[in-house]
Fold this sequence. Notes:
This protein has one domain. Helices cover 73% and strands 0% of the residues. The protein contains 13 helices and no strands. The longest helix has 32 residues.
Amino acid sequence: MTLREPETSAQEPQIDSATASRKLRNGLITLALLVILVVALLLAVPGLHGVAHDVTHMGALWLGLAVLLEILSCGSYVLAFLQVFDRAPIRFGARVALSELAFGSAVSLGGAGGAAVGAWLLVDRGATPKRVAERSVVLFLLTSAINAITLAETGLALFVGLLPGPSDPLLSLLPAAAGIAAIAFFLVLPRWAERLAKVRSEGRLRTVLIETAVSIRMTEQLLVAPDWRILGAVGFLWFDIGVLMACFAATGPVPPLSVVVLAYQVGYLANVVPIPGNIGVLDGSVVGMFVLYGVSATTATAVTVVYHAIALWIPAMWGTLAFVLLQRSRGKPIELRPDREERRRLREERRQRAAS
């Protein structure tokens, strides 16, 4: 069986190979120019000389660990992708997932984002646009749910004193409340969407409501089902946080885990700004949060700049290679893996044959 299915009701992503390749190439060039600009500012602006000094004196072993952790974060995203797109061939699915990371790093939200390129790559090999869109939403919701749970748990643990760090309600309880609100909305939305869909006549809005409910239900099942691959969504977040902690260790003392997690997660809200790599915007947001939590502005800036460089270039380079390999294999048939129930049945049959 191939990826192609008969249903073609949804519209295919309006992306082609040349356009996607051009956007990725231009994004990487823009990213490189922005990095050069940041380095020039660190060297030229007198007030930033302390930051430049901290960056150039970071421990090489810790930076090597940071790179390894970012590689593990990318690998975890691949695992999360394969959990959601569970019938995609492993090698092909891994390359699509890494391509999404590359476009997410190098191309601004105003262009072809990672999810859009991933959808195009899947549809190009025969997947139905409707199924790809549905599963892409599930993947986004899955990783977002892990973020919300982490934010809520860390904020509450900090507020009640289970984790070291400032117990100021604005710096602990407020982030926790934001995470809890997101989780509550996630749980309530499918019921609300289903009720509203029942009273709507046939049309686009009703379809969106039904598909929203279905995607959230699927995400809930992935979160509670006994499947070790959920570690992919967890590792995608926590290995990336580990990169930030390794960069702190490369400069000296590491702030409390709660401070790193909360500053990281709140600071990453700047990702909504459509700038390639979010250079400058994300850095300023994360540094500002660290300063609020009592970290030295100079140290926070040096650590964030190096962390951001690693978090951009590792997925950008690895994902670009994956994208090139996918382009070279265009037109080759893709064999779907058996679905989850079929794989479980096959494993059981193998165990029975081995036992006999």
